[in-house]
Amino acid sequence: MKxxxxxxxxRYGIEQWPQPIPGPGQVLVRVGAxxxxxxxxxxxxxxxxxxxxxYPVVLGHEWAGTVEAVGDTVRxxxxxxxVAVEGHNFCRTCVFCRRxxxxxxxxxxxxxxxxxxxxxxxxxxxxxxxHPFSPTLxxxxxxxxxxxxxxxxxxxxxxxxxxxxxxxxGPGTIGxxxxxxxxxxxxxxxxxxxxxxxxxxxxxQLGATRLVNLQREDARAVVNSLTDGRGADVxxxxxxxxxxxxxxxxLARRGGTVVLEGIAGGSHRLALDPDLFCxxxxxxxxxxxYTSSVFTTTISLMSSGVLRVGPLITRVLPLEAYxxxxxxxxxxxxxxxxxxxxx
Length: 343
Ligand SMILES: [Zn+2]
Ligand SMILES: [Zn+2]
Hints:
Keywords: Membrane, Metal-binding, Oxidoreductase, Transmembrane, Transmembrane helix, Zinc. Its cofactor is Zn(2+). Pfam families: ADH_N (PF08240), ADH_zinc_N (PF00107). GO terms for molecular function: oxidoreductase activity; zinc ion binding. By secondary structure, this protein is an alpha/beta fold. The chain has two domains: 2-144 and 309-342, Medium-chain alcohol dehydrogenases, catalytic domain (Quinone Oxidoreductase, Chain A, domain 1, Alpha-Beta Complex); 152-286, NAD(P)-binding Rossmann-like Domain (Rossmann fold), CATH 3.40.50. The chain has eleven helices and 16 strands. Strands 3, 5, 6, 7, 8, 15 and 16 form a seven-stranded mixed sheet that branches. It has a six-stranded parallel sheet with strand order 11-10-9-12-13-14, sandwiched between helices. α8 links the parallel β12 (232-237) and β13 (252-260). α4 (145-158) packs across α5. The longest helix is centred in the middle third of the chain and has 14 residues, at 145-158. The protein binds zinc ion (2 copies). One zinc ion is lined by residues 90-91, 94, 96-97, 105-107. One zinc ion binds next to α2.
């Protein structure tokens, strides 16, 4: 079958790859659409930490497709089911998995990083990792269930309440999906803060009520003007830039919550006032990926139309156009939404 393979950093392309055969308890999924993600670029460039990648690898951890075949002992999933697929092939037996903290599994194993992923025609996956969804949800939208689960886990941990003022720093995929998630809790304001020009249409459709471009505006002044000088109840950081972390602490009100979900890269060090957290009575939530239970919630909300992620999708390209897709992601000069590939 056709697959996009990264043999080693800097050496990649479409090649013939053995078509997987579903073993007992597995299903074979024909990939319908796969999202491209900044972490895919880390695999291409060799900047992903060694524990989180195994070369050669077929990329793709944000994907959905149609069940083509089922292995022995599979009862719940049938040929023809359209499914979204969890990214983490967690072990189910380690102490973290048994607590339901499947995102923290001791045996990291993820499609598109250490297992062949969705930049290919077919993937064989454990049947308990696939989640059928309604006919009203497209394969393209369902491919976003994985990043939407990352965003949703952070939003749940924020303990946002109706009437809150929410700030999201970083208008990338996770930040925009977080905006869609936050709308389910009816905050008063969802202020999206970034360093680029915004294409307001899709951003506002996803739920942001105010856009701040840091190159032209002072985020603190905007937040203060909307909160009588108190600051935001919830700040959701998804920028993946070292400067975003102190900005997040600064924009939160006393007694507020800061959710940190961006990965800045391990080489940076921050200088922070150590008393900041006590004096502000601040709650800080660090988020790594999502649990299996959050993924289940996310696909059901998307499937029922409660959580709408469609406006995020701006380009759908054939797998062969991967170079164009990577270029769009690397050269993003404005908020451009999500690029999907179809194998
Ligand atoms: Zn991703
Ligand atoms: Zn485990």
